[in-house]
Structures are given as C-alpha cells and as structure tokens.
Fold this protein.
Amino acid sequence: MTALLEIRNLHVRIAEDGTEILKGLDLTVNAGEVHAIMGPNGSGKSTLSYVLAGKEDYEVTDGEILYRGEDLLDMEPDERAAEGVFLAFQYPVEIPGVAFMTFLKTALNAQRKARGEGELSTPEFMRLVREKSAALNISQDMLKRPVNVGFSGGEKKRSEILQMALLQPRLCVLDETDSGLDIDALRVVSEGVNALRSPERAMIVITHYQRLLDHIVPDIVHVMSDGRIVRTGGKELALELEKSGYAAYTTAA
C-alpha cells in the first residue's frame, strides 16, 4: 500500500527566533485511516499542522514530507490545497467584507479548475451548499454573513466542516476542532467529520481530550511529546491517557 502521507525525521524551527519545535518526527498515514495525535501543550502538535498546510512562519531544517509520493515541501500553500490538503484551524479567523457564499464558491471553483474540472454554475453551487449545510445545522442566516464574522465557536467549526464537505480533500488535518465546543456542537461537528470518512481519504485529528475521540473514533492514536511521536497504539491508548495524563511522557522527554 502506498502511503498518502509520509513524514520522515522532520525537524522544524520557528523562522523568527530559531526555536526548534519538531525534533525528528516520523509519521505514516494511509488512505482510509483516521489518526489521532494527542499530547501536552507545547509538544508541537499545532506546529505539525501548520507545516503541512505551508504556513510561512516555520522553517524545515531536516527531514522530508511526501504526499502521494510527491515532495509536499516543494508545493506552495495553494498547490497543497488544490492537491487535497485541508487544515481546519483551532481558531478560525474572521474575514470582514468577504461574503461566506462568495468565499465558498471561489474556493470550490478554484480547486475544480486546478483539477481540470469545469466551474459549477450558480444554481449547481447553491443546490450543493444547501444539501451540505442542512446536514451540519448551518442556517441560511449564517451563509449570508461575512466569513466567520459574528459566528459562535461552534458555528466557526461547522463552517470549516462545511468547507471540507464541499472541497472533498484527500487529507484532512483537524487542529483541536473540539476547542471551545459544547456537547451539542461537538456532536454536530463530529457527525460532519464522520460523514467524510472514506477509503480514499485520511484524517489527522489533533486533540488534548478523549471526549472528541468518543465521537470520531480513530484507527491509530499517537502521543506527541517534545517535538516527536513517542508512542503509538490503538484507540484504547486515548482512554489510558485520559486516566493517567501526560506526566510519564513529559518526564521522559
């Protein structure tokens, strides 16, 4: 089986001050798999997600990232998106003045164009958005607002899952999607994520807490500490961490 994502000996530092965050991280993710990455604050979980998406503030000093056999680090962020890499942020930003529907249509048609597909007409696009948004409890009022402006935490997360549902990425990276969600919003977001599980798609779910993994059940759980993955196991590993915490891993690191 060819891995969808292969990360080998990845070393990353903050470009501005040279602080090393990732210190030899290895990770292989196959299509169809859901991987959970857990770990204490400062272990490098969010940095990994930013590097996969192509955020400029980080410098890769060693190692490689292969995505579908190609060098991901050679791709610009928009190329990564066109190739099916999607990052759902822990804190989605507000974009005043940009209508949410315009944003969605522009993103979807840009991706279709990059794949050599024709643009959707406005009626086709509207039908698709209505279908996907209904499943995520997204109201027509939300769709009429600027991107994330005035959205609650749960609405912001639902808007990102709607983007995923429309764009159909091959690799979904969810950076602490459960942050700030109440139980009802967590359930709705998790159902949206679960609806996207497929043999062609892989997901990396970054979280502190077991509660998200009660809803999005992972195939593989990794523990991250001090910039590398220090333990890998099945879903039962998340339950163990819930009971014992990360003290053993931070001490070892």
